[in-house]
Amino acid sequence: MRPGPTTRRANRDDERVLNERRRSMDTPFDSRPVPGSSLNDLDLEVVRATYLPAVVSREVIEENERPLTQQLASMRLTDASGTPTVLGELVAGFDPASYVPGAYIQFVRYQGTDMDASVSDDQELRSHLIDISLRLEALLRSNLRTRIAPAGDLRETHMPDYPIEALREACMNAVMHRNYETSHAPVRIAWFENRIEISNPGGPFGQVRSDNFDRVNDYRNPSLAAAMKALGYVNRFGRGIGRIRTSLAGNGNPPAEFTIDDSSWTVTLGVAR
Questions:
Q1: Under DSSP, is residue 84 helix (H, G, I), strand (E, B) or coil?
Q2: Domain residue spans of the chain
Q3: Which of 170, 197, 244, 254 is the Cys-Cys partner for 270 at CB 3.0 to 4.6 Å?
Q4: What is the mean pLDDT of residues 23-35?
């Protein structure tokens, strides 16, 4: 396979992309219907109250007289027959992991610097994207500690050991870019005394490689990426890694470290000095 000027052996994701391009009727995994699911599996109140206003203007909603089933299909939350798609389960499903194994976040807080240390907190966030984003924000903030740092002119300021902006960006990017199709592993947040490791299944996708990931964009889950952008969780302009780096530098943290292979992606955030 030749991605750009280089040549390398195609991995499983590359082969799937090539197959999708060959088969005009095929669609990305996050837009496919989920066999066995129904509208009863979706939190329709969340769709009406949160998701619909985020992706459609209020004027259009007021003028649109189509039934909810057609609206769900137009937003790719269901297919034309009313069966929820992978996107629908992820965005508004009561229990997405029951249909998309691994579609949850695992959080572990260690009282040390390695996995042999005692665990002070262990949680699994299992719900739809909108609920998880709220719970994750609260969980991250509750684990932050603050330090007193000089602010000039004999003043002091309280600084967190990690900037919440970098944590939020790294976690949401992991949710957006993870491999939901062939991996049953969750997004993992391992919080140690000296660092945080955020990992997700799924290596570089499409034109993204380990040597250009901070400059080039591609989307394994294009419908999910669009939904998360509409909800304000991420951006689709390649600024995520830059925002992580900038917020870490401004808070006194060391630069983020990225570990990338064919099957996983990990970002390590060091504690502020």
A1: strand
A2: 26-98, 105-270
A3: 254
A4: 79
Contacts of 152 (CB under 8 A, 6+ apart): none
Residue type, 136: L
How far apart, in whole angstroms, are the C-alpha atoms of residue 109 and residue 126? 18
Tokens of 192: 């140690």
Residue 197 one-letter amino acid: E
Q: How many CB atoms lie within 10 A of CB 149?
A: 12
Q: Which residues pair with 268 in a beta bridge?
A: 197, 257
Domain 105-270, CATH among 3.40.630.30, 3.30.565.60, 3.40.50.1000, 3.40.50.620: 3.30.565.60
Question: Residue 121 has which token pair?
Answer: 């907190």
Q: HSE (CB half, 13 Å, CA atoms) of 187?
A: 23
pLDDT tens digits for range 159-211: 899 999 999 999 999 999 999 999 999 999 999 999 999 999 998 888 888 78
